[in-house]
Structure prediction request, 303 residues.
Amino acid sequence: MATEHPDELDRVIRHLHSAADFVRWGATALAQAGVHCGHGFDNTLDEAYYLVRDALALPHDCPPVYLQAALLPAERELLAERLLLRRDTRLPAAYITNEAWFASLPFYVDQRVIIPRSPIAELIEQGCAPWLVNPPLRILDLCCGSGCIGIAAASVFPDAQVVLADLSADALAVAQINIEQHGLGDRVTTVESDLFSALAGQSFDLILTNPPYVPHDDVEALPEEFAHEPRMALESGADGLDHPRQIIEQARKFLNADGVLIGEVGAWWQALDAAFPSVPLVWVELQRGGEGVFVVRAQDLPK
Ligand SMILES: C[S@@+](CC[C@H](N)C(=O)[O-])C[C@H]1O[C@@H](n2cnc3c(N)ncnc32)[C@H](O)[C@@H]1O
Prediction:
C-alpha cells in the first residue's frame, strides 16, 4: 500500500512499538483529520482499535495485556499503512478489512456493496415481534446488497426460505459469498431484479427492505467516506423516495394475506409518511438508535 506521506510512515514505524501505541496514535490521527465515523463506528478510538486488531488477527476479546506486546517491523509497517490508508483516502474500515458485522453476524464486504448498518437489524434480532402472526416461511430481502438483512433473517427463522433481490449483479456476487460463508445455500437464493420485476407470481410472509433513499443533491453533500460506496445503493431520485414509493405501491401483490413489509427510509420518514396519508405506516421506536424504520401489514398497503 502506497502512502502520500512516506516520511510520516517512516517516523511512525520507528517510534511506535506496541498495538496500544498504534491504537492511540491512529485514533488521534483519524480524529485530527476529521474522518467521518458512521460506517459501523461512532468514534475514532474504536475504529483505530478495530483496524489494529484485525490487521494483527487478534480476537475481539483480546486481553489488553497483549496490546502492550512488542511488534515485528513488518507488523508495525502494516498497521501504519492501514491507519494512514483510512485517514488519507477516507476508505471506511470495513472496506479495508473486507468485513462488517450485522445482527451479531460477520459479513464479507467490498466496494460492490454498501457497508451494512441498517437499524432493521434490531427488529430481526427480536424475531420481528410483535408484528408477525406466525414465523415466516418465505422471506424477501429486497435491495439486498451484501445480503446482510436476508441472511440475518434466515438465521433467526430457521424454517424460512429467503430470496435476496438486487438490481446490481455485483452486489449479488457479494451476497452469494455471504450465503456460502454462512452455509445457507439450501435456503437462501439470489435473484437479479429491478425491485419486484423478476418476482412475478411469488409471494412472501415477510418483505424486508433497505432501499436507496437519499435525494440526489444530498448524496453530493455526504462525507467523503460515502463516495466509496456504490452510488446506486444510496441515491433515489430528486426527493429520495423513488424506490420507497414504488415498493409501497407494489408490495401488496407480493405478500401473503398475513404478510408484513418492514422497510427503512432513515431521515426521510416524514416525507414518506406524507406521501401515503391513507397507509398506516407504523414507525418503530428503535432502542439502539437510528430512525425511519416502518412496519406495515399487507392488508393496509395500496391494492
Ligand atoms: C441502501 S443499499 C442496502 C443494501 C443492504 N440491504 C444493506 O442494508 O446493507 C440499497 C441496495 O439497493 C440496490 N438497488 C438499487 N436500485 C435497485 C432497484 N431498482 N432494484 C433492486 N435493487 C436496487 C443497490 O444495488 C443496493 O445494493
Remarks:
- The first strand starts at residue 100 and ends at 102.
